[in-house]
Amino acid sequence: MAQNGSQSDHLETLDRDLGRFLTLERATAYMARPMVGPSVGFIFILLAGLLAALSFGQASNTLIIIIVAVFGAYMALNIGANDVANNMGPAVGANALTMGGAIAIAAIFESAGAFIAGADVVSTVATGIIAPDAMGNSTAFIWAMMAALVSAALWVNLATWIGAPVSTTHAVVGGVVGSGIAGAGIMAVNWENMIAIAASWVISPVMGGVIAAGCLWFIKARIIYQDDKITAARKWVPVLVGIMAGTFATYLAVKGLGHVVKISLNLAMLIGLAFGVVTWLIMLPVIRRQSAGLENRNKSLKVLFGAPLVLSAALLSFAHGANDVANAVGPLAAIVQVAKSGSITSDVSIPFWVMCIGALGISFGLFLFGPKLIRVVGSQITKLNPMRAYCVALSAAITVIAASWLGLPVSSTHIAVGAIFGVGFFREWDAERRLKKAHQSTNGPKIAPEERRRRKLVRRSHVLTIGAAWVFTVPAAAILSMLIFFVLSGVGGSF
């Protein structure tokens, strides 16, 4: 008996020790988890520097190219962490996509957009804001581009950390403006472009919000508030999906494939009209089949909007990759061009290895750091379902096309987030309108102010945080870029 008791005590002691080791392993894994993303990101940045060294070869300024490639990779990671959330957030928030599925689709289509249609956008970022000949010499131009890249990357990193989706395009523009002023004076800046960009701070979110709210109003009036919702859905959902298909065909022709083959806006709209009509005809029997047996309630309608929402997220990612890869590698491409030729030109070509850094960096950034901003955009501003998320996606495409037609520079970030705000504020207005109508019909008491505040459907804290980040993006990046330019110019003799 004593021996059995001793063995039992030993086993209990062993169990306690094993339990302590298990607890220690879990604690270590929990503490180490936040370090996985930065560690993998750091490895990617080092590989980008190595790729630059191997690709550029032996030259007197190879070290500068390696350093700029490192910062280009850092910027690409930040774009993936911040900007891509605008495309995937609504689909994830509406539960049409899982987080893993969204990241996989975005990584594929962002990379495809960057490789297939991203090269021609780079010259605008590299030379369209500051006149290249205004910098005086190639060395000053290199420092200006490097300062712009570093300042934009730091600002986007800060915005991601505080949970604010910002325009990476505006961050790069601010960085180029700041370093250009520091290197060549205030007159070197193309102020007409800058005024248009500043105007887009207001135009982009307002246009996105109004179009998204109008789309949601149409869905509510024609489908949700109808007595026979399924019959109404069979009539109008094919039309809405056809509009989305046509809009995205036009969007991709203007903002994506238009960089491969020259396509006028009128031709792009004809292409979109053809795609829209064909899709509408295809979707008529599809929606009829999908809606068979569905109950006459709002929850049933979500099934019909799931697939179009996933497709829209993929297409938005393709167009985003085609356009915003320039934010990561535009300054890098300009520096490589100057380093090779020794002169500053307005025509900037982009080597394949530079595009690899941008495209892969965006995908890595999304995979490692993107979920935080995807959650903010998808669920923390206002609650989204497939119908509301559809309105956001459609609004983003329509707004970009309208802006292209009007010749206005707009930010995809501002449009998407503005559309989410528009959907949320419309829901608040519609809910209060219906509540007032119900109270008036029953002669009930007025709604107390406390109850009105409780019914707010948009988080005001996010409105203030995101709005402030938008306003400060260009000036903050510009000031930071000026400081970095002065530092680089001071130590430039070391290279």
Automatic annotation (TrEMBL):
Q: Which GO terms describe its cellular component?
A: membrane
User: Cross-referenced InterPro entries, in alphabetical order?
Assistant: Phos_transporter
This protein's major location comes to: membrane
User: What keywords sit in the KW lines?
Assistant: Membrane, Phosphate transport, Transmembrane, Transmembrane helix, Transport
Any stretches that span the bilayer, and where are they?
Answer: 35-56, 62-80, 92-119, 139-159, 171-189, 195-219, 239-257, 263-282, 303-322, 350-369, 389-406, 412-429, 463-488
A GO MF annotation of the entry reads: phosphate transmembrane transporter activity
Q: Name one GO biological process term.
A: phosphate ion transmembrane transport
- Similarity annotation: Belongs to the inorganic phosphate transporter (PiT) (TC 2.A.20) family.
**The protein's name in its UniProt record:** Phosphate transporter
- The protein's organism comes out as Pseudochrobactrum asaccharolyticum
